[in-house]
Amino acid sequence: MMKPLPGEGDVEVLVERPYSHERSPSSTSSTRHTRPTRPPPQLRARPYYRRWSPWIVSIAAVACIAVFLVTMYVNDCPRRSATGCAAGFLGRFAFQPLKENPLLGPSSATLVKMGALDVSRVVHGRQGWRLITCMWLHAGVVHLLINMLCLIFIGIRLEQEFGFVRIGLVYLISGFGGSLMSALFLQSNISVGASGALFGLIGSMLSELITNWSLYANKVAALLTLIFVIVLNLALGILPRVDNFAHIGGLISGFLLGFVFFIRPQFAWLNQRREPAAGQQTSPVKRKHKTYQYVLWLVAAVLLIVGFTVAIVLLFRGYNANEHCSWCHYLSCVPTKHWKCNSSATTCSTIQQGNTLNVTCDRTGFHKTYPIANATQDRANELCTQLCS
């Protein structure tokens, strides 16, 4: 909540002066026909900062849902899966077996086909566009529902405050930053989801509070609340099947972007601009922003430019961050007695014999024969994922 000025609410009330050439009662009493009285002075209230109508967040949510439906249509589980589908009554939109995808969604092969982040294809296949497309894909209904609810609750409030341009830029750039971080650390798995962009919005809320510190009331309580939310969500990221590196990359990107895009002018400067219209210019000239706001803006902008440049260069040179950081993998998954963190790539040995395909999972040793003739590489990869799950 913004601090009101002393003795005022959160809006400024402007009173229009009556016309100076109106006649006084004494001067009009001797005339036979008096002029009609002027309307009373009007009170006009206007907020200190503009409020925007949110729409870009809603469009982003609709786009993610539409992309998921297209992905499920392309997946076509009844025709492609040899082990049955979950929710088969949905027909072509049925989900992969729960053992393969517990999030109620498509196969890994379909996600890769639709643009999931696959580091080998990004680096060796020069498919850098996957760093952007992966943030519009989701692994399943559960994944999609959680992300879209977070997007609506967080994004709409921010868009009302700062408008669609700045929120759209923070969302896209943070998602890109999350993809970069994920690609540098998780090179054996594919990655999808808008979580990096969502963490970017949360990070921008934290930096917005810091850079506009003097404008807020109850600032300490708001700061502690945001820190608690961030720590809680990052802690959930240590569970298996969650790409916490995308969360961390998006959070850092959004935190720096907040200093750049969410800087607000001071109340004194806003009042100074309005005083001349009311004929009340008495105070000395005020600066639009405080010195620390300019410093934070400059530092954040430099860190963003340098950080993204270095990360992109390292990625396309095939840099694997885990080789230089032996403990970093614990940031994404911590093994316990209840689950394991197996980040090794899923590979299988396949042999095509006439109308049958023999598949053996290299990690588990499981073997299965499928009645498939002339199986494509994508089909073999899909069967490998199912067998090794």
From TrEMBL:
Q: Tell me the domain of life.
A: Eukaryota
Q: Where in the cell is it found?
A: Membrane
Biological processes per GO annotation: proteolysis
The record's Pfam families line, in alphabetical order, gives: Rhomboid
Topology in the lipid bilayer is annotated as: Multi-pass membrane protein
EC assignment: the record states 3.4.21.105
Per the record, which residues fall in region Disordered? Answer: 18-43
The residue ranges crossing the membrane are 52-74, 135-156, 168-186, 192-213, 220-239, 245-263, 294-316
The chemistry this enzyme catalyses reads: Cleaves type-1 transmembrane domains using a catalytic dyad composed of serine and histidine that are contributed by different transmembrane domains
Occurrences of domain Peptidase S54 rhomboid (ranges):
126-262
Q: What is this enzyme's class at the first EC digit?
A: hydrolase
Name where it mostly resides: membrane
List UniProt keywords, sorted A-Z. Hydrolase, Membrane, Protease, Serine protease, Transmembrane, Transmembrane helix
| A molecular-function term among this protein's GO annotations | serine-type endopeptidase activity
Q: Which GO terms describe its cellular component?
A: cytoplasm; endomembrane system; membrane
Q: Which family does it belong to?
A: Belongs to the peptidase S54 family.
Functional note:
Serine protease involved in intramembrane proteolysis.
The protein's name: RHOMBOID-like protein
Q: What is the lineage of its organism?
A: Eukaryota, Viridiplantae, Streptophyta, Embryophyta, Tracheophyta
